[in-house]
Amino acid sequence: MTWMSWLSLCAICCAGALSPGPSLAVVLRHTMGGGRSHGILAGLFHAFGVGLWALATVAGLSLLIVQSPGLYQLLTWAGAGYLAWLGLKALRSAGQAPLAWGGGDPVSAMRAGLDGFMISLFNPKLAVFFLALFSQFVTPDMTMTGQALMVATAAVIDGLWYSLVALVLSRSDVLSRLGKRARLIDRITGVILLLLALRVITF
């Protein structure tokens, strides 16, 4: 892979990471509910899930997903179900703490990481995205090192972006202002996640 090709890959991966969606909502929620460490953990585990999708694409597994409507539909429904579950949990939250999960109960770091991972794992549209993206860069003579660089680039950019989001949101003055509106933000987050779940199964 040439230097210019890699820079082009970075630019597209950045654009994909910055686009708002359920992943941003999950990182936001865990940053406000558990602080900087929870938000960063959710972001890093999300990046791990992104890396798995990128690896599957490079290995050719995404071709099977695209060519198998049944498998793709199953993954789509699983993803929509998980988004809906997150949305309902947010709507039912009492807002006793900043975006507290499950009616004010503290959320463990493991839960934050798992949510970050699951929100990316149950997103089959990532396979389609990486298939379209990597098809522009993968060549028959590409080495394993080149393939590994593509996977690492996608995962690292994703992890860095959501870690930055968690760092910015974890500033005490920011959290203080948002915390006063925790219940409203919980409701808005829940509605967004439910709408995204609906969009997944109808788009």
Automatic annotation (TrEMBL):
Main location group: membrane
Membrane topology value: Multi-pass membrane protein
Subcellular location per the Swiss-Prot or TrEMBL entry: Cell membrane
Transmembrane domains' residue ranges: 41-66, 117-137, 149-172, 184-202
Keyword Cell membrane: yes
Keywords on record: Cell membrane, Membrane, Signal, Transmembrane, Transmembrane helix
Signal peptide per UniProt: 1-25
InterPro entries, per the entry: LeuE-type (IPR001123)
Name of protein: LysE family translocator
Organism: Marinobacterium aestuariivivens
